[in-house]
Design goal:
alpha+beta
């Protein structure tokens, strides 16, 4: 399967435009989430900073896209932004140190759950144009099979404290590792990096959640 990498400014702009997206706006979304995280203090609960940064990025992405006729979808507590044509969706995730770099392949920082695994399976099937891997359809739940024409992209974000740099990319996943991390991408669109003011590594929230990927069932006590 072919892997495609967009990194030159002109080709990045062209590819994003084809998806109905704009690099400047995506960078604004990512910076907003990071700024929200930076406002957390040591008096917040552990992991709150990580959760806040992720949640505010999801919010900012939706506030950018909804006026453009995108819709929000909380797929079993997995928040997605779905394109007007319904053919692709975007999830927000924290990436590892390879995020935004050309020479190495990134992965998600945290292990992901069953909904991500199902979406990656659909992506793989679409990448092969419903050909040799069509038999995996049986492993996809019926509600997701109805939307097998929808590709899921990840807005991957990584803060490099050593370089004081915020890096991000829009990537289309096609594989998960044995430990549950998404680690292979059919397509990567590298966005411009952002230099950050040097600051000490925070002692709180550095290993916070990478966003929920689970199904929670709440029942009233009898």
């Amino acid at each position: 399967m072919e892997r495609v990498l967009f990194s030159e400014p002109e080709e990045v702009q062209t590819r994003l435009k084809a998806l109905g997206l704009d690099e400047i706006e995506l960078l604004r979304v990512v910076r907003f989430g990071q700024a929200s995280r930076s406002e957390c203090t040591e008096n917040h609960p552990p992991s709150y900073a990580g959760y806040t940064g992720w949640a505010e990025t999801v919010r900012a992405l939706r506030e950018y896209l909804i006026p453009l006729q995108w819709t929000k979808c909380n797929d079993r507590n997995w928040p997605l932004s779905v394109s007007p044509c319904g053919k692709f969706a975007i999830a927000v995730a924290t990436g590892n140190e390879a995020t935004g770099l050309l020479s190495i392949t990134p992965s998600t920082k945290a292990s992901k759950g069953p909904r991500t695994a199902q979406a990656v399976t659909v992506n793989l099937q679409l990448a092969f144009d419903f050909g040799a891997v069509s038999t995996i359809n049986a492993a996809i739940p019926s509600d997701l099979r109805k939307a097998t024409g929808r590709t899921t992209w990840f807005l991957l974000i990584h803060v490099d404290r050593k370089k004081s740099e915020l890096r991000c990319e829009l990537a289309r996943p096609v594989r998960m590792s044995e430990d549950g991390r998404v680690d292979d991408w059919a397509e990567r669109i590298i966005l411009s990096g952002t230099q950050l003011d040097p600051e000490p590594e925070p002692s709180f929230g550095t290993n916070g959640p990478d966003g929920p990927d689970f199904t929670a069932e709440i029942k009233r006590r009898a």
